[in-house]
Amino acid sequence: MQNKLSIIIPCLNEAEVVGRLLESLQPLRQVGHEIIVVDGGSCDTTAQTAEPLVDCLLSSAPGRAGQMNAGAAVANGTILWFLHADTELPVGASEAVIDGVASGGAVWGRFDVRLSGQHPLLRMVAFMMNLRSRWTAVATGDQAIFVRRDIFEGAGGFPDVPLMEDIVLSKRLKKVDKPLCLQLRLVTSSRRWEARGIFRTILLMWWLRLAFVLGISPKQLARWYL
Hints:
- This protein is an alpha/beta fold.
- It has one domain: Spore Coat Polysaccharide Biosynthesis Protein SpsA, Chain A.
- Helix content is 46%, strand content 18%.
- The chain has 10 helices and 7 strands.
- It has helices spanning 15-30, 46-50, 64-74, 93-102, 120-136, 149-154, 165-173, 191-196, 198-213, 218-225, and strands spanning 5-11, 34-39, 56-59, 79-82, 108-115, 146-148, 180-188.
- Strands 3-2-1-4-6-5-7 form a 7-stranded mixed β-sheet, sandwiched between helices.
- It is globular and about 45 Å long.
- The mean pLDDT is 90.
C-alpha cells in the first residue's frame, strides 16, 4: 500500500483514554493502515483494552522514547505517526497527513493543538504552543508528529532520553527540512495542567525548556518534571 500509515501509540496506564482513541482509528485499519500500541508495563487494563483494536501490541520498558522506537522498528508503513493515548483527532487528520507527505512533499510535520479544559489560561497555553512551534520549527509529542519512515531512520529515531525526546528529534528533522505545520487542531488532554495547577505547570514548562537550552541533562529535567 502506497503511503501507508503506521500509527504508533506509547502507553503507560492509559486504560481510561486509549480505547476511545483506538475506536476512532478503526476506519483506518479497514483501509490498510496499521495501529501499533507499545505498552510500557501498565498495571491497569491498558493492554487488554488495546489488544483487539490494534494490529500489533508490544511490551517494552517504560519510557516514551524507547516505546516509540520499538513501535517504529516493527512498523510496515511509509509514514510514521506518533500519537499520545489521550489525543482526540479532528476530522480529516489522516488525509491531511497523507496529502501533506504524498502531494505536498513534506518529510515531517505536526498539528496545531487545543487543550481539553475550559480554563481561559489553557487557551493561551495552546496558542503559545502553536505559535512557538511555527517560529522554531520544533514540535512536541502532544502535536502528533508524523514523519516519513526513511527520514526518521536517517535521523536515528528518538534519542534515548527520559524527557525532551520530541524536541531533540525535531531539531534533527528540521536540518532535513522544515515541518509541515497543519492548522487542523487536535485535542490533547489538559489533565496534567489541571492536576498540578495551570500557572505552576506553565512556569515548570518554561523552566524545563530554558534548562534544556542551557545544557542541563534530560535525566535531571525528568526528575524535576516528575
